[in-house]
Fold Carbamoyltransferase HypF.
Amino acid sequence: MELAAERIVVSGLVQAVGFRPFVWRVARRLGLRGTVCNLGDRVEILVTGPEAARDALVAALWSGPPRARVLAVARQPDLYDGGPGFEIVPSVAGGVSAGIVADLATCPACLEEIRSPAARRHGYAFTNCVDCGPRFSIVSGFPYDRARTTMAGFALCASCRAEYDDPTDRRFHAQPIACPACGPRLRFVGPGAGSEGEAALTAAASLLLSGGIVAVKGIGGYHLACLATSDAAVALLRARKGRLAKPLAVMMRDAAMLEAFCRPSAAERQLLADPAAPVVPVATRADAPLSAGLAPGLDRLGVMLAYTPLHALLLARVGAPLVMSSGNLSGCPQVTDDAAALRDLAGIADGWLMHDRPIARRLDDSVMAVVDGQPRVLRRGRGLAPEPLTLPPGFAAAPPVLAMGADLKAAFCLTRNGQALLSHHMGNLDDAGVADALLAALADYRALFAQAPAVVAVDAHPDYRSHALGRRLAAEAGLRVETVWHHHAHVAACMAEHGLPADGRAVVGLALDGAGLGQDGTVWGGEVLVCDYRAARRVGRLAPVAMPGGDVAAREPWRMLLAHLDATLEPDGTDAAVARGLAPALAGRPLPVLRAMIRAGVNAPACSSAGRLFDAMAALLDVAPARMSYEGEAAMRLEALARGADQAADSAPFGLRTRDGLAEIDPAAMWRAALRDRGDGVAPARISASFHAGLAGAFAELARRTAQVEGLDTVALSGGAMHNAVLAETLAVRLRAAGLRVLLPVRAPAGDGGLALGQAAVAAARMLEGV
């Protein structure tokens, strides 16, 4: 007999989060009859019963299980002729978009289980349930079922099958479910005979405790691990990997170990305990026996908590924090394949802790920081990707877009049906193998999420590899190409994630970063813009100076110091400062050669870059290396120096003037004051703090004036310089004090890792308008 019923379709992040058993429990409690199943990346419910009970079910759907994120609930009348109860029925194929959650850190219940001697999964390195474990790193297709994951080759034993089939069990339809009898197994390859299972963990721990380096197969790839408490082990890892000074991430076993070595704030503790388990920069304890080589020149250490049972068990055996650095040759993508790990890491690792569960896709660890009181993404990877971002009102009707991002911190973005799928971090396209890895990941994402773009958005710089790749892909598919100016994309990304509508008012955009091609053909990086999604107009900037040596000046901070001091003092004044020992970074440098380049305009392009200004100040204060070994090294050291000031600093003087029709921030007075302070013996930390305060104050004032003239009330802050917490927080405080609404990136990185989101928003807005 057919009964009046309704069909309810729930869209959003409803796969791999226990949504069907959640619906089953609620429906049975309400006395409803019907079925629930997966339909592609949606959940479909057919239900009959009293209207009040059905309304109560729908109300419960919006909260869902803890890791779900419901975006829409659609209801329509239907008929039901099934059984008397409420059942979970097999999944059916359906359309897909971006409905899979990211990998989840091990939940407390599973951690307790692996520690309990009486538990069936005691000491088992692949324990998980519906609330935790691998997701995106193992999925190979939709709907998300075991047969479409890299667990497909592991047949369930009778005990696991019973848990998997029981809707009341926390492992009901947990696709990676496994146990020692039927699941993946550990093995150790290294000194002595090979070993498996718990013996493999013991062998790896023994090698680590003796100062060795172990390649550990994680969720999204291999790590290179060593004792974080050993100067010798850290130095050995750096030497073998060729990673001279870039900070190394450290993994702590649990919150107790974290507190023994670090001084996290309450917000940082909460962020570290999040199921995404990101790397978070935190202060360390002065007496903590950590290697000084972990983060040279910095006052923060990137730490994360063990996020898999394998990591937790290994750290329990070692009893000390472990470095967990990306398992790759310097400049190459992280290794995911076992054979490649044995081959490519042979010159670095002394042993390999491996397992037989394949990795479906490479995922670096995510990095987040608490800035201006809120967790913000610095690098999007494991634990965050591929959770979608909902585009603002007005974008749902736009055709699908593929945005290619930038060359540094490469990431792409796909849009469809009002959702933006920002990819995980790929690396730098200049590095070997990264372009191929990006194209492979793009094909993977497009196949997995069934996205067919109508337009390809690229950075306007014609020499960017991402630009060339995008144009090639567009030509192959006969698609339109939309070029987007670099700093417009930065601001648009911030606007989009804060929900500013497609046809909304413009904002004042502060785009501060290292470098990007500007609309006048010069290098920009310290810009005040008036932006909507379709266009950006520059109204202010940091005063431009030469970059002697071009791109080399972005790697050798002393070159920018020379350019800035000469622009302020003229060469004789700079030479006098060098002779007095106020600018030791310039001593012995070929200054006449660089000055000739600047005068002739040969390989010395003008730039208005905030990033290069930070480099120059770091060089003046003698905290910048002669040649940086990683992007942002000098600026990060300068930020750390500012945090070390013993008292609040006055703001360094920056001038505001008008030149070439633009409002311009002039740093000349700041440089003269900094040299005077150096001569008077003022602590470098206070000079750095004063510099940060002064620069923030100058940009805040310029933004305030712009907002007043343009009749605007919102300022969007973006660009890689906004990863500098001292600068971003000072800017936010001053702008709010001026009565302005302040937007800072949250879920998409402020730097180039979030650029593709802005490109996608700009291209979509232009397509909506038919530009």
